[in-house]
Amino acid sequence: MRSVALAVAVMAAVLGGITDSRSAADTGEDALLATSESPDEGIIRIGAEPRHIRLSEDALANVGRAIGRGSGRIYLVLDDVQAKQQPGILYEVFLDATAASSPTPDAAQVIGHLNFFELNKRQLSFDVTQRLQRLASQGLRDQRLVVTIGPALGSQSSPSPHDRKELEEAGITIGRVRLVAQ
After folding, report:
1. What is the pLDDT of residue 7?
2. Phi and psi at residue 82, in whole multiples of 5°?
3. Tell me, what's the pLDDT at 75?
4. What domains are there in the chain, each with its CATH number?
5. What is residue 179's DSSP assignment?
6. Cα–Cα distances in angstroms (integers) from residue 177 to residues 62, 157, 166, 173, in the given order
7. What is the rounded CA–CA span in Å between residue 81 and residue 49?
8. Fewer CB atoms near the end CB (10 Å): N or C, the chain?
9. pTM over 0.85
């Protein structure tokens, strides 16, 4: 079991923020701060265009209280992540107080990447404590937290027609997005 935890820690360092999902979701010590607003079909579909996922209205207020209490770490958890087939590209994950019109390689906003090359878990988590502390310090309490997930395109503004087709056919879905404090 220790070797699995070590392997996850190494992957987290390499992939920029993905952590062992047990740390945020399976210990029984976490407190739910926010959850995604469920679309009509109950599944969040990810494709060739950036997907903006609004978190519950009270998310920023809950985060502010958790930070004020010194609740430890805050994780963004993606539940039930699936792909029918490998999309052949990484996805960038952003967390902000407003929806980004399109993901950009702004290191201040990117909180991590989704890698479908060897997706073994159906639950992923990202440590977003520092990002949320920065947002909370800006006094944005009347705004909504939004998670944006989009293809990592580098300098391209949109995917090529071939890439767009592959991304749409990959059938990427996420069951729920949530913030937890531990």
Report:
1. 32
2. -140, 155
3. 94
4. 2-181 (2.60.120)
5. E
6. 16, 26, 24, 11
7. 17
8. N
9. no
Cβ atoms of 172 and 86 within 8 Å: the answer is no
β-partners of residue 53 are 147
DSSP label at residue 168 = H
From the list 58, 16, 67, 20, the residue with the least C-alpha distance to 37 is: 58
Say what the pLDDT of residue 76 is: 94
Contact between residue 19 and residue 12 where contact means Cβ atoms under 8 Å apart:
yes
Q: How many residues does the chain have?
A: 182
* Contact indicator for 157, 101 with CB cutoff of 8 Å: no
Question: Inter-axis angle of helices 129-137 and 59-69, to 10 degrees?
Answer: 100
Residue located via tokens 């309490």: 141
Q: What is the mean pLDDT of each run of 10 residues along the chain (182 residues)?
A: 31 36 46 74 86 86 82 89 87 81 53 79 88 81 83 82 89 92 88
